[in-house]
Amino acid sequence: MYDALREKLIAKTHSLVMGDPKDEKTFVGPMISESESKRLAGWMDSAVAVGAKTVAGGKVDGTMFEATLLEGVKRDTDLYRKEAFGPVAILERFDDFDAVLATVNDSDFGLQAGVFTDSLAHAHRAWDELDVGGVVINDVPSFRVDNMPYGGVKDSGLGREGVRYAIEDMTEPRLMVMHETW
Predict the structure, then answer these.
(1) Which of 36, 79, 160, 162 gives 43 a disulfide partner, CB atoms 3.0 to 4.6 angstroms apart?
(2) Mean pLDDT across 88-116
(3) Which of 134, 111, 42 has its CA nearest to residue 79?
(4) Is the dihedral of CA 79, 81, 87, 90 positive or negative?
(5) Burial tier of 1 (Cβ tally within 10 Å: 0-12, 13-18, 19+)
(6) In this structure, are residues 67 and 16 in contact, taking their beta carbons and an 8 Å threshold?
């Protein structure tokens, strides 16, 4: 399956329009700052320097960072070990689902995971075993709806975002304790 999926991902990545987020045709907007763009480009360049291969994208101009796919990223690189927070994805072939779950958990981070599978058993096992804030089955891990609890575990954060959690943050809970003495 890997080769067929790889080719579809490459074609889709090449079709993504980068530009002004106010333009409806834009899919990839700018990164939040030029320093963040440079950070991610540095991680990508370091990974490529030790053997990774860019198979789609990779161009960076100021805050604009083209959607990028890489293969062969070594597990000890920043690109593999840290949260990119940018339009970069790593492709990696696997044969053992349990080993993949262990690889995901072997991280200091755990925001969300996207698991693509046609196996309900794999979906449930991913939910049971992954140490992440959310497991999204058959969609990207950045999928969210405002009323969903969104957030991570480990070094990916504390607490959740979403309507309920925003209301709780803006609410001052109070307590009155009365000991009956009359």
Answers:
(1) 79
(2) 94
(3) 42
(4) positive
(5) exposed
(6) yes
Dihedral sign computed on CA atoms, order 112, 140, 135, 169: positive
Say how far apart CA 157 and CA 152 lie, in whole Å. 5
Helices 97-105/120-129 angle, 10° precision: 30
> Closest Cα partner for 75 from 114, 108, 97, 42?
108
CB atoms within 10 A of CB 103: 14
Residue 7 token pair: 């080719």
For residue range 42-82, list pLDDT tens digits in order.
999 999 999 999 999 999 999 999 999 999 999 999 999 99
Neighbouring C-beta atoms of residue 50, cutoff 10 Å:
11
At residue 137, the 3 state secondary structure works out as strand
Please state, in angstroms and rounded to a whole number, the distance separating the CA atoms of residues 92 and 141. Answer: 16
Residues 130 and 48: their CA atoms lie apart, in Å, by: 28
Residue 41 phi/psi, 5-degree rounding, is -60, -40
**In the structure encoding, which two tokens stand for residue 91, read together?**
């492709």
DSSP 82: S
Determine the straight-line distance between the first and last CA of the chain, rounded to whole angstroms: 76
pTM above 0.70, yes or no: yes
